[in-house]
């Protein structure tokens, strides 16, 4: 019987893993520059974390979560997103009292039961940042600048923001009523999902992509037009800071985000450089989330994006191609004595930080040289019975063809590899 990956999951093979490493390395480097520290949360959480944090009316909770009972009958869920888990960890470890201001980032797998398609899987890797403990508009702008810098570093141009504010909890309640009145006499011409959302949470109607619903959605009033004075001032300050940073944006009243914990600033980062207006990542404020999970009133802001989406874009553009190998030295062998010395030498060099490989299939010398080229080894050292007897060999720099005679002592070879052209 043949076993394939479960539908909606995938294998990342060694020849393509470098693309994921490019994205993850960029996330970590930008996080270092912005002083965001890494957090890792469990893949499994109690289901109530997401039903309370994300919202019962969302598609994620209603349709997409992988939820099951464990052997004790407790309801557990594979995490569908990262923010609720980070907020839970913030409370679980008492950070709200010990260190209430936190700037965090994460990279890891998430799970949603969605229809698999290009760039969208049921198991997917998400990267994200969370800045918790301040309501200052400068933090909104910093999070957006972090996202912009990340895309710039990956070589994606033509960036702009789709920006909006959905206000505080009172603003949202008032706006929901406005939307209910707007859609009330239009529902018979809209899809069944919109009809259901009309009562549960009319903000979700704005997420609908059905063609028959779009004209009614486009005619709806925008949330930024119905903000209280405090939220309107916050939004104005965010825009001013983005202007000072030179980050272009457009106010888009249809950006409300798909999770109920969002408040005030919401955004999506888009690239026109991709040939279509596809969103690269999205985020916003969630000033009520930690309180909803049992903590004190604590503001937060962040964003998240899918690694697979970026990998597809980078591969299609042919940019930032990862190197074929990071190997420093290949040891080719002839004869039993040479093979034994090479095996010991390889291990000693690895312990001193040199990336080394040898042939493990007892193949011909010619095939060993072919393997060295396939691995893009920087150096080649041939060790045969003669070299084993004399204790010396010829170290060849593959790019230049230059050879130097070296003693077969690990320290000597390390110096020669680290300083090409030198010899003992």
Briefly characterize the structure.
By secondary structure, the chain is α+β, with helices and mostly antiparallel strands. It has helices at residues 14-34, 47-53, 59-64, 83-92, 95-98, 137-153, 169-184, 192-200, 214-218, 229-245, 289-292, 307-317, 335-350, 365-374, 385-390, 410-418, and strands at 37-38, 44-46, 66-69, 75-78, 102-111, 123-132, 159-165, 249-251, 263-271, 278-285, 300-306, 329-333, 356-358, 379-383, 392-397, 403-407.
Detail the topology: elements first, then pairings.
Blueprint: H1 14-34, E1 37-38, E2 44-46, H2 47-53, H3 59-64, E3 66-69, E4 75-78, H4 83-92, H5 95-98, E5 102-111, E6 123-132, H6 137-153, E7 159-165, H7 169-184, H8 192-200, H9 214-218, H10 229-245, E8 249-251, E9 263-271, E10 278-285, H11 289-292, E11 300-306, H12 307-317, E12 329-333, H13 335-350, E13 356-358, H14 365-374, E14 379-383, H15 385-390, E15 392-397, E16 403-407, H16 410-418
Parallel strand pairs: 1-5, 7-8, 12-13, 12-14
Antiparallel strand pairs: 2-4, 3-4, 5-6, 6-11, 7-9, 9-10, 10-11, 14-15, 15-16
Helix pairs in contact: 1-6, 1-12, 6-10
């Amino acid at each position: 019987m043949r076993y394939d990956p479960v539908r909606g999951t995938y294998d990342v093979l060694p020849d393509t893993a470098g693309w994921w490493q490019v994205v993850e390395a960029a996330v970590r480097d930008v996080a270092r520059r912005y002083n965001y520290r890494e957090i890792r949360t469990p893949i499994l959480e109690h289901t109530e974390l997401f039903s309370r944090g994300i919202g019962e009316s969302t598609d994620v909770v209603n349709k997409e979560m992988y939820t099951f009972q464990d052997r004790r009958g407790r309801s557990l869920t594979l995490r569908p997103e990262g923010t609720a888990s980070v907020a839970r960890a913030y409370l679980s470890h008492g950070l709200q009292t010990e260190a209430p201001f936190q700037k965090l980032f994460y990279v890891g797998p998430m799970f949603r039961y969605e229809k698999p398609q290009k760039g969208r899987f049921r198991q997917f890797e998400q990267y994200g940042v969370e800045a918790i403990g301040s309501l200052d508009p400068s933090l909104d702008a910093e999070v957006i600048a972090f996202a912009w810098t990340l895309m710039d570093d990956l070589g994606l141009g033509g960036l702009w923001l789709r920006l909006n504010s959905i206000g505080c909890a009172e603003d949202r309640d008032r706006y929901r009523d406005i939307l209910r009145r707007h859609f009330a006499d239009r529902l018979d011409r809209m899809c069944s999902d919109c009809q259901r959302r009309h009562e549960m949470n009319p903000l979700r109607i704005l997420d609908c992509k059905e063609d028959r619903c779009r004209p009614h959605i486009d005619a709806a009033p925008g949330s930024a037009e119905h903000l209280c004075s405090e939220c309107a001032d916050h939004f104005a300050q965010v825009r001013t800071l983005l202007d000072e940073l030179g980050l272009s944006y457009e106010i888009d009243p249809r950006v409300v985000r798909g999770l109920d914990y969002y408040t005030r600033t919401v955004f999506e980062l888009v690239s026109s450089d991709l040939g279509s207006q596809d969103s690269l990542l999205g985020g916003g404020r969630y000033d009520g989330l930690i309180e909803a999970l049992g903590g004190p009133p604590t503001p937060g802001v962040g964003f998240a994006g899918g690694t697979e989406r970026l990998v597809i874009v980078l591969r299609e553009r042919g940019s930032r191609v990862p190197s074929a190998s990071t190997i420093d030295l290949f040891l080719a062998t002839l004869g039993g004595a040479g093979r034994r010395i090479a095996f010991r030498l390889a291990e000693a060099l690895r312990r001193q930080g040199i990336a080394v490989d040898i042939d493990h299939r007892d193949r011909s010398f010619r095939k060993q040289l072919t393997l060295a080229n396939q691995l893009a080894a920087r150096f080649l050292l041939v060790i045969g019975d003669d070299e084993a007897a004399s204790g010396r060999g010829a170290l060849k720099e593959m790019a230049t063809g230059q050879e130097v005679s070296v003693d077969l002592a690990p320290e000597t070879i390390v110096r020669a590899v680290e300083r090409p052209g030198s010899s003992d």
